[in-house]
């Protein structure tokens, strides 16, 4: 019996180690996510890159890792199994500048453990929304000077068991005091952008936490399945009009198939989302939140060596009635793209979004990309993206991107329960719906010195009286201008505003293994209310000018540019 168990265990381990590369996730950080473009001349047909991020580490091999310093470290250089190659270096030197903090490598089992942190402080001049106690509609903005800070601590565990199974687990604990416009957002929606619910901390700060992780298993070279609590991004630009990592983490199950020598990729993902509205009939001391489900289908074809095409389908499904009882349509689990929209339409009982995207490398220096998303044909709800980036030289990339989202796109006609949202944030663009946005980005690197700059101009589309820019508002609501009640118009940060901002950051990369940086950045942001009760269009409303200095592990995207 013992010998049989040993043989069974040996067979299982042998099964795990048949594939030659690990199947863990790459980081979602934008610069790291697009780093392969800096070295695309080195890519081969065997390199598998998808526009459905995060990609798998084995798909990119080691290409493009030099852009943001993400250089793979020799796994044999372990805390316990030291490689002679690095024995001339002290443990402190290697851990500070080259390696993961803890590395365990037995050959079959590989584990890294790293601290996560963002310790930063700053100051500036801010505008904060002050509602009128008698009528919230006619509130205004007060200007003040003050300090801001982030105190983020966490831990990240990543590992591989054999070559078919990878895992990751992370946790962030945060206390922060934000600039005025972000403070307004948090007070309005009770969430920190992309980081979940909050509770008050001291007089003017917030306390919040975020955890996540996944398991990734590849039973064969051309198939992979993942399960966890994480976020995703679909597209090739800075923004995504299909699905982005703008909102909070969510439970997911995702599968990936590769065909025709990796030229075709088909992905299906099922998710569970929440609206932060409590059910009316609590079954416990605290009523649960409204739940809904999502299904996402993605097909990518590498049409030529320079042209990548993709199709996208996203649907938000009703999974409970107004009393919280389960109301699941099992057609949700249909893995075939476009069948469910054909059965249900785009805005019937469920909310569907269809999309087409492309990425074209016209030369070694210039790339064009774009997306088109259709929410409803009859009411002309759609979104459009067009962008390009140009390599002035190998270490300097210029990027320009335009995004247009028609009013009510991502919303749901009958109510907000099936809106394209999660945790009080849009699943696509941070500005929600009904806007035009133009942004220019510059990324430069000299050795470990990194420079990033961004200019953004956006305007919400307001066409009174029947247009709104709120992704949580159903499109059959008639809005009167001037409003008849406080629900018709919202003068706070996130709704009906047109922001313009300039961002500049200078950073020094300390440790490429976890993208640890010391940084100094500054932001100048001005926003306008598109309609003011007394002054009409437009009215200056909010100005925020501030600087940050600090130290952080830069592995995720935090979208404060809205």
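Q: What amino acid sequence fits the structure above?
A:
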């Amino acid at each position: 019996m013992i010998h049989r168990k040993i043989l069974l265990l040996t067979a299982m381990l042998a099964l795990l180690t048949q594939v030659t590369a690990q199947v863990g996730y790459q980081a979602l950080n934008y610069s790291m996510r697009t780093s392969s473009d800096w070295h695309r001349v080195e890519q081969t047909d065997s390199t598998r890159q998808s526009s459905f991020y995060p990609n798998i580490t084995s798909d990119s091999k080691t290409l493009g890792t030099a852009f943001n310093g993400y250089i793979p470290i020799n796994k044999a250089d372990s805390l316990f199994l030291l490689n002679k190659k690095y024995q001339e270096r002290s443990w402190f030197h290697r851990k500070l500048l080259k390696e993961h903090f803890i590395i365990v490598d037995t050959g079959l089992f590989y584990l890294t453990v790293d601290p996560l942190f963002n310790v930063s402080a700053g100051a500036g001049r801010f505008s904060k929304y002050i509602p009128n106690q008698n009528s919230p509609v006619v509130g205004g903005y007060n200007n003040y000077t003050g300090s801001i800070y982030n105190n983020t601590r966490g831990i990240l565990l990543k590992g591989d068991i054999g070559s078919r199974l990878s895992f990751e687990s992370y946790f962030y604990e945060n206390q922060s005091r934000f600039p005025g416009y972000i403070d307004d957002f948090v007070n309005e929606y009770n969430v920190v952008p992309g980081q979940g619910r909050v509770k008050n901390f001291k007089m003017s700060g917030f306390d919040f936490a975020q955890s996540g992780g996944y398991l990734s298993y590849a039973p064969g070279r051309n198939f992979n399945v993942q399960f966890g609590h994480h976020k995703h991004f679909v597209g090739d630009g800075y923004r995504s009009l299909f699905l982005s990592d703008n909102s909070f983490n969510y439970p997911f199950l995702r599968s990936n198939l590769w065909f025709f020598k990796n030229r075709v990729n088909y992905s299906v993902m099922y998710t569970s989302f929440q609206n932060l509205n409590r059910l009316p009939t609590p079954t416990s001391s605290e009523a649960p939140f409204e739940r809904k489900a999502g299904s996402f289908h993605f097909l990518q074809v590498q049409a030529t060596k320079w042209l990548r095409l993709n199709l996208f389908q996203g649907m938000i499904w009703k999974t409970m009635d107004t009393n919280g009882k389960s109301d699941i349509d099992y057609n949700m689990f249909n893995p075939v793209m476009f069948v469910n929209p054909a059965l249900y339409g785009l805005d019937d009982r469920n909310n569907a979004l269809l999309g087409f995207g492309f990425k074209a490398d016209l030369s070694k220096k210039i790339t064009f990309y774009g997306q088109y998303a259709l929410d409803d044909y009859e009411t002309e709800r759609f979104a459009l993206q067009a962008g390009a980036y140009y390599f002035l030289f190998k270490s300097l990339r210029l990027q320009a991107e335009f995004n247009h989202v028609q009013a009510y796109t991502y919303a749901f006609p009958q109510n907000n329960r099936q809106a394209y949202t999660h945790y009080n944030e849009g699943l696509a663009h941070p500005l929600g719906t009904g806007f035009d946005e133009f942004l220019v980005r510059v990324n430069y690197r000299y050795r470990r010195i990194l420079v990033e700059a961004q200019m953004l101009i956006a305007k919400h589309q307001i066409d009174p009286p029947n247009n709104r820019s709120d992704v949580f508002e159903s499109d059959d609501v008639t809005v009167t201008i001037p409003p008849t009640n406080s629900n018709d118009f919202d003068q706070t940060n996130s709704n009906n505003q047109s922001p313009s901002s300039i961002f500049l950051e200078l950073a020094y990369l300390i440790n490429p293994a976890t993208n640890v940086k010391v940084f100094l950045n500054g932001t100048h942001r001005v926003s306008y209310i598109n309609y003011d009760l007394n002054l009409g269009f437009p009215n200056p409303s909010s100005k925020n000018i501030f600087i940050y200095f600090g130290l952080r592990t830069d592995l995720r995207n935090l979208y404060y540019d809205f």
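Q: And what stands out in the fold?
A: The longest strand covers residues 109-130.
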